[in-house]
Amino acid sequence: MTGGRRKGSAEPNTEGKASTGGGPWFMTDDRTDLALPAPPPPALRSDTTAPVLRNPLRFPTSALRLRRRTLGLGAACTAALDARRLFCLVPFALLAGLIIYAALPVEPAPWALPTAALAVVLLALFRLIPTRPAVLTLSAAFGFALLPLHAALFATPMLAFPAYGAYEATIDEILSESQTERRMIVSAITPIDGARPLDIRRARIFAAADTPLRAGDRIAANFRLAPVPGPVLPGAFDAEFHAYFAGIGAYGTVTSDLRRIAPAEGFALSRAVDELRRSIGERISSVLSGPAAAIGWAMVVGDQSFISDEVREVMAASGLAHIYSISGLHLSIVAGGAFWLLRAGLALWPASVGWPIKKIAAVAGLLAASAYLMLAGGPANIPAFRSTLMLGLIFGAVLVGRRALTMRNVAIAAIVIILIDPPSIFRPSFQLSFAAVVALIGAYELPRQPRERARGMPSRMAGAIWATALTSLVAGLATLLFSAYHFQQTAPLGVVGNLMMLPVLTFVIMPFGVLSVLAMPLGLDPFLLPIMGWGIDRMLDIATLVTGWSVGLEQNPILAPAALVIGFAALGWFAFFPGWWRLAGPALAVPLIAFFGFDQRPDVIIADSTQAIAVRAGETYGLLAGRTGSFAVDVWSDHYRRDIDAQLSGARCDATACLHDGPQFRTALVLGSDAFSEDCAWAHLIVTRLRAPMFCAAPVVIDAGAIARGGVHWLRWSGDGFEIRTARVATSRPWRADLR
Q1: Where is the DUF4131 domain (predicted)?
Q2: What is the pLDDT of residues 312-346, one digit of tens each?
Q3: Could you count the other beta carbons within 10 Å of the beta carbon of residue 212?
Q4: pLDDT, tens digit, 9 for 90 and up, residues 669-689
Q5: Which of 337, 384, 572, 688 is the most exposed place for a label (fewest CB within 10 A)?
Q6: Could you give the C-alpha distances from 311 to 7, 47, 61, 318, 677, in angstroms and in order?
């Protein structure tokens, strides 16, 4: 025996390849140096009844392929658990709890959640359920409790009936301000001159901009306050829900006699930041004009209120709408630029030899990101806050010498945002940014062949273009579902638009925007802002060009809420699994969305706060009541991508009713009580802003009480009756004022 080995034994093989020194009967485990015996070939087994593979070139059967794939999935799941990737599912468990709470038809009993959580803990302690499912279950339970906890700290009673009169109030925040009007949040609302007392915490107010005001001022005026409006369509943005958790109990306007009765006192950081943002925005407006000034406001100080609808539509159609929303791209350019410049400068300075240059540059990048977040509106700007958290984790990993771009860091950032502002998960901004970051980090983690470092400028430029295109493609695919659900719009050439725009943004708009802000104390910004404005104009030219190329290619799907649930589940799968198995979740989501995720257009839409009633007539809609150009009608037209005519063809109106005899059903809008007796016997659908009498025997009656309770009504004819949906669901929940 030489070296203590038997003849024919396998030599150590640390590369995980099968050893040739020990014959075909041995293979090497890639985790150790030990040679492990492999199972014998089927033909040499003692069990002669076992099936024998007679033709080694024969393809495996479908059952064998399924078994191999199943084993591969199990191994991938085990590898993910061993790598402690279960933590990546914690934010998804929190999301599940939040969604379940918000979807309940009634408010749960206070004792229900603690009892259920205690039961899960006891079952886990006594080993009756596995620990890992118990952790996710408890995370979901905690997510379920987050909204009630947030409500206890910040929520408000909701105004149920309009209020008119003189009030005093304190300005908490000025949301936006133009030359003609101002939008602000006020609190400490106190009645004067016999006005009705209100129990709301805060209100959102529109006022003329002729009186100089700032945050912290105490004002008095004649107000007209109204209940916060419900969703304009079933499943649309729910202003009542978000206003309740933000402590805003009413919307209103100043009707007259606005005056400041006491100025803001003392120093407040939020007030100083707000004044700084307004000052920077005014400097931008003094040099730039039109869309360039509006987008400059948005990209520097985070105020998008001046961007026109036309510009928004062009930017969305070209896939560039994310550019004027301060998020990861902008913060990465600013923070990454500060990091790179300081690191390069210190590297060229001989006295810095031996210094931790990379860590010093990381601190500078973190400070730059924090300053930009402050200008963008602070934590209230969810995309900017989420991106700053991610950059903080990345630079923190640099400081401690850890890997920066990991799915664990994405999970930490998501958990922090969910804990700070749980209602934000129902906003498009959170969903879009979360999906994009998960997809980009997941794509970064996928295994790939090592490549040699590019040499020469052409190779480096080609690599940068490829990386930009791949990044845009991955982010676009990840956010496609959420964009289609919230905006009913896709950007088929978004990758092309982003490729054309990114050099302008990276080398013109953002650098000269930062330099302009830094030069403002010196009065040099008028020389730099025009260059930034030129870049914005070129970006708009690119958006217009790409929009023109996209004509005929765009799709406008109408998705159901089930599509979002499927999308979040696929995103959770993608975040949890390592390797190529993570792509199976999104791949499975495609047929599921195709079968269960699409919705239909209604046949009738009834507004709540206006008189509008739209009835479908072929491929378009017509108004049985109301007028075009109103907010609700414009939203309906944009959402369903159909024209709404000013008058419904074939409708007949008199002083007491409007009638429409359609090909499928008959509709009557009752204007006077005298018409009920006749129209209730004739129509399939009765709509009235009055209280319908008990004797009205029409199959469907929607009167003033039903509209007050349910808000906007969505109806679709199914052949033998109407499917009815209301925008104000779960009317007993605390964010729903009792409007009956």
Answers
A1: 107-255
A2: 889 988 888 888 888 877 888 888 888 888 888 88
A3: 7
A4: 999 999 999 999 999 999 999
A5: 337
A6: 79, 75, 57, 11, 51
